[in-house]
């Protein structure tokens, strides 16, 4: 799966990353590297305000390509251009809450997630909820037949149940 991500739009939806932080793009790239490594996906994340613009060697990796839009265009325009050029539609997932990007992806038949939906997926993948250990003393067992219950209790040497 190839993810095409509206970078600043996704940062806005993520807890723990602030658009005002000068390292917000690096923080997102790090999370995406971890996500793509676990899910075996590749991602292209595009940000606004890049000087001079183009691919970032510092933030890109084998699975995550980071691109900054040059000053004469926007990340939205670059993403829409990539959507229009997408050849294998089933391979792409577009991540953005921007209406124009979502409309272009819909017109091209690409899969779409809002930035909030993907942020939730990213957080669950990177920080799965802990499962509570099973306490053997409080586990409930349901048996319809009283004779069967007595057989099980004898089998496991359990005390009699009233």
Could you characterize what this model shows?
- This protein is α/β, with parallel strands linked by helices and 162 residues long.
- It has a single domain, classed as Rossmann fold.
- It is built from 6 helices and 6 strands.
- The protein has a 6-stranded mixed sheet.
- A hairpin with an 8-residue loop joins strand 3 (54-55) and strand 4.
- The protein is elongated, with a radius of gyration of 24 Å.
- The protein starts with a strand and ends in a 7-residue tail after the last helix.
- The mean pLDDT is 87.
The largest β sheet comes out as: 6 strands, mixed
- Poorly predicted regions: none
Task: Count up the domains.
Answer: 1
Q: Quote the CATH topology.
A: Rossmann fold
Radius of gyration, taken over Cα atoms and rounded to an integer in Å? 24 Å
In DSSP terms (H or I, runs of 4 or more residues), the helix count works out at: 6
Series of H and E elements: EHHEEEHEHEHH
β-strand amount: 15-25%
- In the CATH classification, which architecture applies? 3-Layer(aba) Sandwich
Instruction: Estimate the helix proportion, in percent.
Output: 40-55%
Instruction: Give the number of DSSP strands.
Output: 6
CATH class value: Alpha Beta
What are its keywords?
162 residues; alpha/beta; Rossmann fold; 6-stranded mixed beta sheet; 6 helices; 41% helix; elongated
SSE topology:
Elements: E1 2-6, H1 7-13, H2 24-39, E2 42-47, E3 54-55, E4 64-68, H3 75-85, E5 92-95, H4 99-108, E6 111-113, H5 115-126, H6 146-155
Parallel strand pairs: 1-2, 1-5, 2-4, 5-6
Antiparallel strand pairs: 3-4
Helix pairs in contact: 1-5, 3-4
């Amino acid at each position: 799966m190839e993810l095409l991500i509206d970078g600043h739009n996704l940062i806005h939806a993520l807890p723990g990353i602030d658009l005002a932080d000068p390292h917000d793009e690096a923080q997102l790239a790090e999370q995406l590297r971890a996500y793509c490594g676990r899910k075996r996906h590749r991602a292209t994340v595009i940000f606004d305000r890049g000087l001079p613009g183009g691919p970032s060697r510092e933030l890109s990796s084998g699975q995550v390509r980071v691109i900054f839009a040059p000053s004469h265009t926007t990340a939205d325009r670059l993403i829409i251009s990539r959507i229009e050029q997408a050849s294998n539609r089933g391979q792409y997932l577009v991540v953005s809450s921007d209406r124009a990007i979502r409309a272009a992806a819909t017109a091209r038949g690409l899969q779409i997630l809002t930035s909030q939906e993907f942020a939730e997926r990213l957080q669950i993948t990177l920080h799965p909820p802990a499962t509570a250990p099973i306490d053997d003393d409080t586990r409930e067992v349901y048996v319809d037949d009283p004779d069967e219950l007595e057989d099980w209790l004898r089998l496991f040497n359990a005390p009699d149940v009233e």
